[in-house]
Amino acid sequence: MVSTKAPTHVPGRQRFGGLLNGDYQTFLALFGFGALFTAFENLPKLRSILFGLSVVDFPAVFGLLVVLCAMFWRSLLRRGFVWAEPAALTWMDFASVDRRRVVVKRMWTLWLGLVLVVGYTGALVTAIGGGSKDVWIAMSALTASGAVLAAVTARRTAIRGETAGPIVLALAGLAVAAAGLGPIAVEVLAGALFVVAVAVAFGGEPMSGVGRLELVDGWNARLLRAMAAVFMDPMLLIPESRPVPWLSLRRPTTLRLAWAGVLGRRRYASVSVVVACLVGVGHLAFPAVPAAPLFAVGAYAALVPFVGGLGELWRNPGRRRWLGASDWELRLVNGLVVAVLGLGWGVLLGLVTLTLRVTPAWPVWLAVPLAVFAALRTATRPPMNYDVSGGGAALQAMRGVDVLLVGSLLLSVTG
């Protein structure tokens, strides 16, 4: 008889993330669960907030859900579930079969959470708009097919050019919203996504079979993100830049390092395209929501990853002395580079709005340079002062975001 060894539980580690231990995690889970379902009891109020007096544009809502599926797919392709504690790998007889089981379980947990987010968003918006039976079926089919496609691609090793898939899906959502397609067309799109998922489901090595080096690297990245959250340093949340060979062989200057920090994080370009589609379709789907905060938050989310190089230099005095550049030179040169990126993202968003045939008021476009300034302010934050507490610590952690919020409010009033 063949017996399977039961998975070892690490002493002191809470099961199920502490949700069932009766502590504050349980309270937060119950509170969040209740708040999510309470929203269904306030549908008229939410309708006035999102749609105002306008008729619900369900093709735009369909397009929004397609773009959300693209964002879901791109986030799962990061494969942040591939990690293991070095101590567990070394001391706890963490055999290959155990590694596979843990990695697969973690992937499905993350996948389930993202499915619930996308599915809940689609269900809530459909309920607010009073969607018919056909709308509910189309929403469900689209969410299910997008989830299957994300799962079968994330569970295997990376395919060359796979990050272009979410961009194509986001552009499909843009086309659905622009063309005013109905539930039948959305169901056809869902069927096409399922066929693609079946086609790519075979072949490739599963991510659950990665070696010790990949697992430890994933653990180090996760530990860095956890420390960033504890010490309230948002720039540490941005992964390190990848090498740019043709730039690294030349004498380092401020401008070359600025472009190296951008090009080394060019993998975030696909996210920026999806965010632009999400902002444009969201503006069309929810006409009562002010456009200025939507554009500002979208631009900030698209640009912040590319100021990671400036953030690394700013929090490392030794590197700044090695470079020999003053603070104003770093701000100026990196500001010009990020301004070019912001201009490119603004042009992309303009093309999205033209495709959707929406014309935001001109003050709304000032949200893009506002986001550029906010991103630079975030990257050049001085070291945290832990002598203060409460509101003072929160203000330090929100450096850059504070300007974004105040500026968005002013642009909303002006618009």
Automatic annotation (TrEMBL):
Keywords: Membrane, Transmembrane, Transmembrane helix. The chain crosses the membrane at residues 24-43, 49-73, 108-129, 135-154, 166-199, 268-286, 292-311, 332-356, 362-379. This is Integral membrane protein.
